[in-house]
Amino acid sequence: MPLRPFKRSTQQQTIIQAFTWHAGDQVMETLTQLQRRYDALHTDATRLAGTTGQLSQRAATYYHLYEDSGRNHIFPLIAAHGALWASGYFAFGMKLGELLSWQYGFSPRRRQQQLDALANFAEAFREVNRRVCVEIYTTYHFTKQYGQHPLASEFVRPELLTALRRLHDANQARTKLDDFSKRAIFETHFRDEQATIVGPRIENAVAKFGWPLMRFLALMPAVRFAYFPQGRWLQFWKFDRQEERISHGLKAFDLAAAVGWQQVEQTLDHYQILPNEFFANSLAHFANLRNDLLAAT
Question: Mean per-residue pLDDT for 64-73?
Answer without folding.
Answer: 97
